[in-house]
Every structure is written in C-alpha cells, then in structure tokens.
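SEVERITY: medium
COMPONENT: batch folding queue
REPORTER: lab tech (J.R.)

DESCRIPTION
The queue accepted two submissions in a row. Attaching both inputs and their returned structure tokens so the on-call engineer can compare them side by side.

ATTACHMENT 1
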Amino acid sequence: MKIRSISLKKMLTGLFAVSLFAASIISCDDLNRQKAKTENQEPATTSVEMARNMAIGWNLGNTLDATNWENKTNAGIATETEWGMPVTTEEMITAIKNAGFKTIRIPVSWHNHISDTNNYTIDFNWMARVKQIVDWAYTKNMCVIINIHHDNLAISKIKGNIGFAISNNADIQAQSKKYIEKIWTQIATEFFNYDNRLVFEVLNEPRDIGGEFKGNEWWTNSPDIMNIIKDYEQTAINAIRAVTGNENRFIMVPGYAASGSDGSMLALYKMPTDTAQDRLLLSAHAYSPYAFAMFDSNRSEDDTVFGNDDKASLDSIFSYLKSNYTDKGIGVVMGEASATDKENLSDRVAWATYYFTKAKEAGIPVVLWDNMVTASTPNSTDIGERHGYYNRRSNSWYFPTMIQAMMKAVYGENYTAQ
C-alpha cells in the first residue's frame, strides 16, 4: 500500500527552507541537512557514521544487474526483466522503505548498455532508467548504493569485449582501467548534485573469473591479485573525485570477491588512497555460515539447522570486522547477505536475529540480497540460490517473520513497521 503523510514538522521545515533559499541565505547542502533532520538522521561526516546511518538495507537484485552473459552492445532497458523480475515501480520502493529499510542497493551492469565502444559511452535511456529508480529511493530520504556489478569478465573473454578482467597482462589492465575510468566519470557526472546519501560502490566482488589467472575464482592468497584490484579501485576513486560535486562522496571498496568472512584474504587487501578525509568504506559480502546460508549438500541436518557452531562462525566474522575496521575508524557495509530458503523458516528466523544483532553490535549495516526466488518458485532447483524475500508482483513479503526479526535486531524489540 502507498502511504503519503505530511506532518506539521515537515511543512514548517519546508516553508522555512524555501524562504531561506529565496533570500539566498542557505546553500543546497544545508537544505539537504535540514531534510535529513526531519527523519531524525544527522548527515554523516565519517565513514563509521555513514555506516551507522545506513542501518539496514535491501538489494534490488537480479534487475538492473541482469545480463544474458553475452557482450551485447546497447541491449536496451528491456534487460531489467531478463532474469525474471517485473519492471521496478515506485510502489515497490515505497514498500521497502515502509518495512523499515533505510538503504537500497541498486546493482547495475553497464557493459551491455554502451552506445559508443570507443569511449564506453553509456546509453542515454539506460542511464535515465538507473536515475529514475535512484530518485524514487533518494527522494524518500533513503541511502542509495549504485555500483559496477556484472562487468567483470574472464581473461579469455575480455579481448574485443567490454568490461574489465583481473590479469597481469598490461594490455588487459589498460583496457580494464579505461573502462572503469570512463564508466565512473559518467556516473559521477550524472549524479554530481546528489548529497552523501548516494554512495558509489566502485566494483562488485572483483575476482579471477573462472580461475584463469591464478586457478581459483572465489579465494586467493596472491598479493599480485590484491594489488591489481587496488589499482582498479584507485582508478575509479580518482575518476569520481575529478568530477565536481563528488569531492567528498562516500565510496565503497571491496577486497577480493568482496569476501567479508575470510580474514586471511582481508588481511592481504590494502584499501586505496583518497583525497577526501574518511570517505572510504569497506564493502563486504557474507552469506554465512556458508553451509547453512547457501550450500546444499543433499539436505543434511547441518545445512538446515542454525546451531551454536553457526553462531560461533558469525561471532568470528563480525569480531574480525569490528576489530580491524570499525574500531579503527573505517566504516564497513555488508552489501550482500542472506540465508537461502531450505524450507526451514524457524531456523532462518533464528539466523536473521543473530546475524543482524551481531552486525548491529559491530556497527555494520546489512543489505539483504533479494532475487525473488523461494522454495515455492517454479523450477527453483538450485537450493543455494533461493534468496527471495519481497514478492514484487504482489507487493507482499514471503517471510514477514524474518523481516520482523531483522528489524527488531536493528531497531529494538518495540519496532513496528509502517
């Protein structure tokens, strides 16, 4: 249901802001600050504060990031529904906010929406569609994350195609950095006048696709790979900062595969440098504990029951992130997390309560991954990929008790959704 309400406080705030603007006394930034205060949220001045402001989020998964995995040029905005999602509407975004989510992450693939392959010019209609969905969330005073999502190609696929690849080949690195620089320059230009509630996440799960470089796609102990990722991220940061209006924007940077659960990999990753003060956040993902949250091993008991060993695993993850990042003044965003539907709702509720509680204690917002697939979805044979929570077709929640558990972990036992 769409709910619209205007409180006396908001009316007075709006009139006050307009009068000051007419008198040329107040800046646009001050207007944004005043708007933020109407939602009881002070604008962030540090990465840790920004993480705290993001509170809890939701992913518009398998939508603007959808691709047929072929490198089509300028595939058009119809790709939004290519992975089975309905066309995104403002009503959906309103429902997400009304459930209690303060942040929306909008994963975006750009490589098959390029109209000029020389300069990697983003198709006008695609950029406009991205902007429309961003605006639906942004104007509701939500924090919004946009990124480069499925543009990471295997080394064997990069030649003659659009995107980037993790490789020690100088030509591939040059092509990759050119692509990253051109895409982020265009995004930063399009959104230059948005305040810090719009966050840029430079890459999504950067990795050696297919293990063609070092032999393993999802894990590495290679400092060489980490340095390549850092170099690519530095290219993105420099491009963003070079565009007026983005000098102090918050930027999320991931380590290898954006792993938030492997301390040994994170220890090898060194965040890039920045001309802005305290505006970088670590981007992490953790579908954890993996055996419970994703992996299907013939439906064994360990895969479906959330037990004490699973709690210990989450204790370790969030303790590491808190000690090595948050406590050291580096904000962390858990940009993807979920527990797949193995028809074990009570255990998933227990997982949600524990996971989001530990994240809250560590000062880390969790952004729930949602691909609208559950055990009841026709042909959902991949048990590890049932991460559906919000039914966008019926504007309803598949598992309201899980959402309630997440919100209470973040906001307290007395929290009630709108």
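ATTACHMENT 2
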Amino acid sequence: MVAALALSAGAAEKTDSLSGWYYRLFAPLTFYHSVANSQLSIASDNPDEVSRAIDQALMNVYLKRPDLVKITQTEQQESGTIRQDLIDQPVVQGVEMVEQAEPLPEMPEAEPVEVIIEKPVFWKYKGDGSLQFMQNYVSNNWYKGGESNYAAVGTLTLEANYDNKSKWKWENKLELKLGFQTSPSDTVHKFKTNEDLIRLTSKVGLQAAKNWYYTLQVLAYTQFARGFKANNEQVFSDFMSPFNMSVGLGMDYKVTALNKRLTGTINISPLAINYRYVDRTSLAASFGVKTDRHTHSLTDFGSQLTASLEWNISDNVKWKTRLFGFTSYHRMELEWENTFTLKVSRFISANIFLFPRFDDANNYDDDLGYWQFKEYSSLGFSYSF
C-alpha cells in the first residue's frame, strides 16, 4: 500500500527535487544505488518524506522480487553515456580525389549543308591505243639470204558500256588496226598493208542469273585499204570487200576467275545469221560468194560462238584472246586472235601477235588447206585511258 501511494505521489508531482525519482518509478527494473544507500545508512540525508517513502518502496521490491531487476544504475549510465572521444575525434571524409576530367570541347554550331543530288552514271568509257614498230636488217651477203624491211602497226580500241545496275547491259567495242611494211624486193609497191581491220561489236544483255545474260549480239567488220602481194598488181581485198556481219541470239556468260585476273565474256548463240558482202565482183569467188549482176552477198543461218578474255598473268605480262566461230552446217569459219603484251615501262610495251584462222569458203591451199596463219612481234608506245 505504501509503495502504491508512493508511486501515485511520485507520478502526480513532477518537481525539480523529485525529477530523479519520477524516472525511477517508470523504470522499476533498474537497481539504483541511491535507494540502497538511503535505506541502509543510519542517518538519511534526504529530509523529504515523499522521497523516503519512494526509496523504501523500491527497496522492498529489490528485496522481495529480485527477479524483476534486469539492469543496474551503472549499466544504464554506461549504455546512455555519449563517448567523449568520438565527439573530440575529427571527422575524416573517405573521399578519394581523382584527376579532374578535361571539359568537353565546345561544338561549333551546325552549319547548313547543301545537298547535291547527282544523276546516276550508267555509261562508262575506256580505251587504249598503241603504235608499234618492227625492223629487220639483213646484209646482202647473208648466208641464208633474205632482205631488210621496216613495219609499223597502229591500234586503237574504244569502248562504251551501259549498265543500269539492275538487269540491263549494253556493251559496245570498236577496234581499229592498220599497219604497213616495206620490202626492197617488191618493185611494184613501195609499201603494203600487213594489218588492216575495222570491227564493231555490240551486245545487249538482260540478266537471267548471277553471271548469265540473254543477249542479242551484232558483229561487223571490214578493212581500210587495199590488200596486195609482193610484185603483184592484183587487189586481193579492199574496203567492203569483204564486209561481214553476224547477228546472234543466245546467252552470255561473264567470266571472273584466278582472283579476278582472268575476266571477259563467252557468248553462245544457237540462232545466228551470217551475212557476207563483197563489193568487188572479181573478189567474190575467193570469199565464197557466187555473184551475178544483181547480187554480191552470201547469207547463212547457223550457230555462233564468241569468246573475249583478258588474263593479267603478272603485273607486266598480259594475254588478250578472241575466239570466233560460226557454222551453217554446210561451211565453217573459225578465228582465234592472241596478243601477248610485255609492259616495259608505263608507255613502252612489246607485243607478240598470233592469229590462226580456218575458212572453208575460201580457196583451198595445197600446203595449209583451209587454214591460214598470221604472226608478228613489235615494240613501241602504248597508252590506256
């Protein structure tokens, strides 16, 4: 009863003298040293009756119910005391300093851009030309005989090719060759032609597969000047005598091999028309044309094969070859041109030209039959553009 009254009185009056006791009443599980000292001392130093009653009540709890005491005043003070060493210790920030990054460069203000739209270029042009010279000297007393001679050959090749980067192609090639030679033993002619050609090849193609095209090819050729033989005034060939034109419908294959060093085309025309015209009536028979007063031409239907390849054997050696074959299943014409070029410098080159030909519409030769052969070697200037 005394403890209850003491608790009630302590909770009712909260003054400066009883402030410590007020907190003790709300923490009855704490053992306070002042309570034990006040009750066990002979003379109490606390004149306040209320305080003495509270101490007596707490002491009664300590003695009868020690199981309720969970903490002592010393432990309570230690747990609630602020560590002075932590207050006095300076606070050190754990910030690591790094090198300051350079500021971003100032970007210039964007200037207006002028947009130019160019029309696609579908046409490509290229060409090459050469002027080759040949000289052969033989003394009058040379043990095998023979005679000195001079020769020159000029060539020009022009190409204009159309490619719309889709499926259509149109290739055009114009080849011009003209050469002359001298021969002291020829008392009739001061010089004669040894190379004479005008040839146009035009081919339109529609792509069928990766390297295959449906094509219509036109091939036409003749020569510049009259052709003679030594010590003979007879004309053996002339401009438009003969004139040959063939039209073939078939397939064209684009060749790319040997790491793109071998390029070109192979054309197969199962349906072809070969037209031959001879303006000089006296020459018609030698070219297989049976003439009368009203006709100077020959027309055949058959099949045709054309191949044009270029192989860069090395940086200085190149081989160009052209194969043309036509058959009407009654007569046959075959030409195989080969040009080997050795590049000496940028503008100087040496050429070897080999040209076997078969034509059973011409006159038969006792030694070679219907075969013909031509060859020459030369050294001179060359230029590509």
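NOTES FROM REPORTER
Helices lie at 2-12, 19-25, 33-40, 49-64, 73-80, 84-88.
No errors were logged for either attachment.
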